Amino acid sequence: MSAPKIKSPFAMFEWMMAFRYLRSRRRDAFVSVISWLSFFGIMLGVATLIIVMAVMNGFRSELLDKILGINGHLVIQPMDTELTDYNDIVKRIDGVDGVSFAVPFVEGQILASASGGSAGALVRGMNKDSIDKLQLVSKNVLQGSFDDFDSSDGVALGSRLARSLGVIAGDRVTLISPKGAVTPMGVAPRIKSYPVKAIFEIGMSEYDSTFIFMPLEAAQAYFNQDGKVSAIEVYLDDPDRVGELRPAVEDAVNRQIFMTDWRYRNVTFFSALEVERNLMFIILTLIILVAALNIISGLIMLVKDKGSDIAILRTMGATRSSIMRIFMITGAAIGVVGTFAGFILGLIVCLNIESIRQFVSWVTRTELFSPELYFLSKLPADMNPSETISVLLIALVLSFLATLYPAWRAARLDPVEALRYE
Length: 422
Prior knowledge:
This protein is of the alpha+beta class. The chain has 2 domains: 12-64 and 269-419, no CATH class; 81-255, no CATH class. The chain has helices at residues 12-22, 29-70, 86-94, 128-133, 135-138, 149-152, 159-165, 205-208, 216-222, 242-253, 262-265, 267-305, 307-315, 320-351, 353-364, 371-374, 385-411, 415-419, and strands spanning 74-78, 99-114, 117-125, 141-144, 155-158, 172-177, 182-183, 186-187, 190-200, 211-214, 231-236, 257-261.
């Protein structure tokens, strides 16, 4: 006995009629225009939502990588006594499971001056071994090098700071600190000239225009911090485990300290990004909703225009459910094709976002993504698979729901009334 044949929920003639209604004819031109507008509306809505969310994700990811690439996930500062035993503390912290490395440093604000001008800067004194671990710095050297950095008595400048001062590797830069030697006349500013050992570019304008790295011992001498450091930065294997690893790090330090982590230091900034991201998602989803409403209006007009055709199909034996499925297929086809066309368009734009930005900037002769304003040197885009799937599902569901009412009206059409005046 042969297995029973599974009947498809949509008959072949229903598909045939649906696609016939989608094809444009001269007397259906207006209905066809609305269908095309619905298609382009959904396509552009899906593409826009994918592009904007990818840029927002890329922006957050890039900023997080840059911020956490040069700033520790945990920062340990002294409370009762100065950090003079920092080497022992670092060794104990390095032994904690989940900790990548710990870095002691001396930090202070100064005025940097050279022949090209002057600018405020932040000096961070670190050993060469510590700088080598900060690959965001050590792997992005534009000029010079960090070879023999500890014994060179030189400094490393961010690229934007070097340009503003008009210096290159090998030149000298003068650092002026307000916290200098104490004299009978008061505190005299400390002024000292250093050779520029290296110029690096992190890719975040705020850091490239601010940071100066100096050998740890030289920084201790310059800031009158002999034998001690300002703080210790702890870098974790997984930044998201910072809350879980805090107690273990505190136990390893084994003294009174003040500890902060990256979440609290940047909570306002990343919370603002998250709120903006969620609002953009809601606002741009309305574009898809408007396009879905166009599908409703287009199908209602199509049902009104095809009243006699529907009546003839009913008299030939087509059931109400068949009529309903025909118009559901007609509207859903617009939504499905528009959704996947929008996905392809969004994917192409996201893969070429920086080239498109440069082209538009060149055509309009404007700076669309100023590094000074947005902190990053290029426009990032990071498509999240689950988020993209959510966008596609929202578009498909809205497109399907938009077909229900017009299809129901078509199914409820009375053949007698439709043919009375034909």
